[in-house]
Amino acid sequence: RVMLGLDCVGGAGQNCTVGDPDLLRTTLADAGIAFEEFVGPAAWKEALRSGRFQIYILYRPHPAQSPVYAEFNEAVWLCEGFLPIKPHPDALSSTREALGLDWGGAVPGASTTVTLAPPLGTQSLLAKNADWLRLSGATTAATAPVGSQTRVLGATHSVGLGNSVTIAWDAEQSASSEVYLSALDALAPSAACTLLPGGVANVRVRVTNTGIRTTTYGVTHAIDPALGTADPLQHSLTVAAGETAEFGLDLVLPDASGT
Known about the structure:
The protein has a 9-stranded mixed β-sheet with strand order 4-1-5-6-13-12-11-8-9, with helices on both faces. 16% of the residues lie in helices and 39% in strands. It has helices at residues 22-30, 41-48, 68-77, 96-99, 177-187, and strands spanning 2-6, 8-10, 17-18, 35-39, 55-59, 81-85, 101-106, 111-116, 124-128, 131-135, 139-146, 149-159, 162-167, 200-208, 215-220, 234-239, 244-252. The longest helix has 11 residues, at 177-187. The mean pLDDT is 89. The two termini are 24 Å apart. By secondary structure, it is α/β, with parallel strands linked by helices.
C-alpha cells in the first residue's frame, strides 16, 4: 500500500495550489496498487505513523526542512520504501542517510534529455524542471549532460532493510508510466522484512474468470479473531470472460507478537 504525499506547489494557505500527479495516480490504479493521498507534512506524519503503508511517495515536497523527513529516513531502515519526486534544489538534509545523496543544484534550461539506467530503465526521456544530485553512497539511475559534465538526476539506495529511489525532475511531465513502475519495483520490501506487531498487511485478492461469459462472483473472507479489519468481509465482483478483477483487504496485526 502506497502513501502519496502531496504539498503546495504554489501559493499558500487558502490560495495553496496542491501538486496534481495525475499520471502517477493513473499508473498506480492501472497496476492495481492501493494508494491514499495526504496533503502537507502534518498529514504525512499521521499516515507514516499509522503502520498502514509500506511505500511512501512525496510529489514535489516543500518546504525542505520539516521534522517529518527524519521519520521517513527511519522508515527506510525498517524495511519500507521512500520515493521523493523533487524538482527543486533545496536539500532534504534529514533524509541524507536513507537517500545516500544531497541535491546539488538546478539544471539550466527549461528541459534536458535524461538517460535512464537500471532499475529505472535504459531509455532516454525529456525531463523538465530538473536538478542534479551529489551522491554519497547512492547508485546512479539517471544522468543528463549539464554544460561539459554528466550529472546524476536519479538514484537508488539501500539502507537497513529498506530501499529508496530519488527522481530529481518533474516525472509527470516526462509522460512515462514505466519510470514510475520501475521505481515501485525497486522499492518493494525484501523477503527479509517482517510485519511488526500492530502493523497492517494489505492482502490483494484476485478473481479470474476462466469461463466463456461474464460472471458475478461472491467472495467471503473468514479471518482469525486476533486480526482486525475495517474492510467488508464480503465482496461481489463482475468479471468478463478471460479477465481478472482484484480488491484489497487491510488486516491489522495483534499488538503483541505470537498471538
